[in-house]
Design goal:
Elements: H1 2-17, E1 48-52, E2 64-69, E3 72-77, E4 80-85, E5 107-109
Parallel strand pairs: 1-4
Antiparallel strand pairs: 1-5, 2-3, 3-4
């Protein structure tokens, strides 16, 4: 799996460096893939099925923490793994909820196959 991820990054890098008209301030660098799946505890984690779009008044987010990567929390829920970008939490109070709350905030379901991206971003 790591080899497949690396091959995908290398293919995107090849497309990027092949583009014409780069600004003089940018230098084409060689591709150096570093896989951080193990470091962030993502190995063996199920693919995410969606991400929290926004937090809303009266809403709740619940699940078992599977991994944390950068600002993202990967939460195992009844609907699958949902990613919460903790930067959305700025200004919100974190409080325990009695019972199982699940997700009552808007979630954007991923439509593309897990691990498939159409571009660099």
């Amino acid at each position: 799996m790591a080899a497949a991820r690396a091959a995908g990054v290398e293919a995107l890098h090849g497309r990027a460096v092949g583009l014409a008209d780069w600004p003089e301030s940018l230098v084409r660098e060689p591709c150096q893939v570093v896989d951080h799946v193990e470091v962030f505890g993502l190995a063996g984690l199920l693919s995410a099925v969606g991400e929290v779009r926004e937090l809303v008044a009266g809403g709740s987010v619940g699940g078992e923490l599977g991994a944390a990567a950068g600002p993202d929390l990967h939460l195992a829920t009844g609907r699958g793994v949902v990613v919460l970008d903790t930067r959305l939490m700025t200004g919100w109070e974190v409080v325990p909820v009695a019972g199982e709350s699940g997700f009552t905030v808007p979630v954007r379901e991923f439509k593309e196959a897990a691990g498939v991206r159409g571009g660099l971003f």
